[in-house]
Write a structure and sequence with these properties.
The chain is mainly α. It has three domains: 199 residues, Serine Threonine Protein Phosphatase 5, Tetratricopeptide repeat; 264 residues, no CATH class; 44 residues, no CATH class. It has 23 helices and eight strands. The termini are far apart.
Length: 639
């Protein structure tokens, strides 16, 4: 194995984040052999290190940016909306792709200098990860530094120019085609154990690279439908294939608990637990949207159970509320979904509804509106004692029964306590589970194909693509939920202790997908709305992609009978941001001239500081759009 002395790489990447300098000098460690015998890096180890360092969804993303993505698109919210709901709260540079470029460039340099073209697949793997990250970065930043980035130690510059989004898409497609050709080269030498994503299966890497072209095509479509169609048609007809089964999907985990010491040995000063468990990815706003939850429940969508948490009101808690003469204090939706006997005692969940009824979102309403006042006493401003139970000296509060996004779907170190009555047993799950991440699945790919076919950009049966996309999305998220061992998955609770007799485990059940596809909310009707809504559902735990899908499509749509976008009185749609704020470049920044020119070329007004609050109550972040967003419909205003 190797160790990595990462002082210079970490300093360079930190400098990049601070001053937007996208070049860095890397010093890679040598093998655990006599230093005199080893003077060059091993490409397979560099590729592994790149995969370990790959991270599209870090702490900043989840803690600061994801809540804004969810709120702006109305796909999640934990409270009523005010004008301040659309104020900026973060600046997102998404620079991880630079690290991937640096690894790619280092391997390319080695292969050229020492004449090892058989190792080009390792470079291509890093390149694919760089393309993935570059799509993310351009989604939010618009123009990014790519073609000249991370090249300083290989004859490049410390002040790389920006690639426009329009030219970037062309470059990314060209790079992907180059990588696919490398992956299809039989002369490539791969050590499967060093590839923690696909185990050295270059055919799957080629499928991922080809599928990323579809990700680009749908982003390009609003600005250049013809070129988007060309890219998509080429991807569909390519002999590389695309992600077409769960076995192909870009779903992986970086490490198992049993090899933490190995990770620490390989990565040096990188904390092994962070690699295995994603401990930093704590989401700060996680309240579910009632509109989204209701849509998913209407479609009998099993993913509602994988993405969101059950509330605290299991049958034992409900029985205790009734016993303590507090039945009227229960949330309305709880009372609506239970059966009582003639004496007012709990009998059962209606029609087996426990599996669905314990998922409930917060209504999407404006603060102090008529709708707000309707829910005020029950949801937004309940009394301190309404949802409390006190038995002897023990007291517990159970809240208004709203669901949250599942923390264990984004990080592996989360302790969970089963709701119990005051003074009841303590039932906990404290197991740390190495985190499995979904980055791009076959379900996503098929839903893109359905969209492009329905738009006429490619040939093919849109209904078949759509139904396959829904099916695979459900199966993939069921797989990820199982791997992450989220609460209630596969069991009714901990260590064989079945706490509530009516408790139901949440894993995918036989026949559920078939039933889902027959519901009015999901069944095929030829509408683009259903395709986009299923993309939005698939991206629930991928908020960047979900936000971009809502932004480019105009869905959820105002007035929709399926999943409506709410137009608030006194808050213009133009006041809802479509991008993050850019700070004013500093004269001391060596990129000052280049960055200032790029912001001017993109037509962006800049904020004055890093607080991100400079454009509150403004239309600047809506009207000054990124290139790929210029022809997209306004929020909630799908064509």
């Amino acid at each position: 194995m190797i160790t990595m002395k990462a002082n210079r790489i970490l300093i360079a990447i930190s400098l990049l984040a601070a001053v937007s300098v996208t070049s860095c000098r890397k010093e890679f460690a040598e093998l655990n052999q006599d230093p005199a015998a080893v003077t060059t890096p091993e490409p397979s180890y560099l590729a592994t290190t790149a995969m370990m360092a790959f991270e599209a969804n870090d702490y900043t993303y989840w803690f600061y940016n994801a809540p804004l993505y969810y709120r702006w698109s109305q796909m999640a919210s934990g409270s009523a909306y005010t004008e301040n709901s659309f104020a900026m709260g973060a600046v997102n540079w998404q620079n991880n792709y630079i690290s991937m470029l640096a690894y790619r460039n280092e391997i390319d340099s080695y292969n050229t200098e020492f004449n090892h073209p058989e190792f080009n697949a390792y470079s291509a793997m890093c390149g694919v990860l760089a393309v993935y990250g570059a799509i993310y970065a351009s989604d939010i930043n618009g123009d990014i530094q790519y073609t000249e980035a991370a090249m300083y130690t290989h004859g490049g510059t410390l002040t790389p120019n920006y690639d426009s989004v329009e030219s970037l898409y062309d470059t990314l497609v060209e790079d992907l085609n180059k990588y696919i050709a490398i992956f299809q080269d039989d002369s490539q030498v791969i050590v499967g154990s060093q590839d923690i994503i696909y185990g050295g299966n270059t055919a799957k890497w080629a499928k991922l690279a080809n599928s990323l072209k579809l990700k680009i095509a749908v982003r390009l479509y609003n600005n250049n439908a013809a070129k988007a169609g060309e890219i998509a048609k080429a991807a569909v007809s390519s002999n590389a294939g695309f992600l077409s089964s769960m076995d192909d999907s870009f779903i992986f985990h970086k490490a198992d608990a049993r090899i933490e010491d190995m990770i620490r040995h390989v990565m040096g000063d990188l904390d092994a637990g962070d690699a295995a468990y994603q401990t930093g990815n704590d989401i700060s706003m996680s309240g579910a949207s009632a509109n989204v939850i209701n849509f998913m429940k209407a479609g009998r969508d099993p993913r509602v159970r994988f993405f969101y948490t059950k509330n605290a009101y299991n049958s034992e808690i409900i029985k205790e509320f009734i016993k303590e003469k507090k039945y009227d204090d229960l949330p309305t939706f709880v009372k609506e979904n239970i059966e009582l006997d003639e004496e007012g005692n709990f009998v059962a969940w209606k029609e087996g509804e426990e599996l669905w009824s314990r998922y409930q979102g917060t209504p999407v309403v404006g603060y102090n509106s008529a709708e707000y006042n309707t829910y005020k006493a029950e949801i937004f401003e309940p009394s301190n004692t309404r949802y409390q139970l006190k038995i002897e000296d023990a007291n517990k509060s159970y809240g208004s029964g709203r669901s949250s996004l599942s923390q264990e779907m984004i990080r592996g170190r989360v302790d969970f306590s089963v709701p119990t009555i005051p003074g009841g047993p303590v039932i906990q799950d404290t197991e740390d589970v190495p985190w499995w991440g979904m980055y791009m699945g076959a379900g996503e790919t098929y839903l893109y194909l359905a969209e492009l076919a329905q738009l006429g950009a490619i040939s093919g049966n849109a209904q078949s693509f759509y139904e396959k996309g829904v099916e695979l999305s459900v199966k993939e998220w069921d797989f990820v939920a199982g791997k992450n061992k989220i609460p209630y998955y596969g069991k009714s609770w901990v260590d064989g202790h079945k706490y509530a007799a009516e408790e139901v485990s949440i894993e995918l059940k036989d026949g559920e997908i078939e039933a889902m596809l027959k519901t009015d909310a999901v069944k095929w009707d030829g509408s683009l709305e259903k395709i986009y809504l299923q993309q939005l559902m698939n991206f629930t735990m991928m908020p960047n992609d979900q936000f971009v899908t809502a932004r480019r499509s105009g869905y959820p749509k105002i007035g929709s009978k399926l999943l409506p976008f709410v137009k608030f009185d006194g808050i213009a749609l133009e006041a809802i941001p479509r991008r993050f704020e850019f700070t004013t470049p500093q004269l001391t920044d060596i990129m000052y001239e280049i960055r200032s020119k790029n912001l001017k070329d993109q037509g962006f007004t800049t904020g004055s500081n890093q607080s991100g609050m400079g454009f509150a109550s403004s239309t600047v972040l809506n009207t000054e759009r990124l290139w790929q967003d210029k022809n997209a419909p306004q929020w909630g205003s799908a064509n």
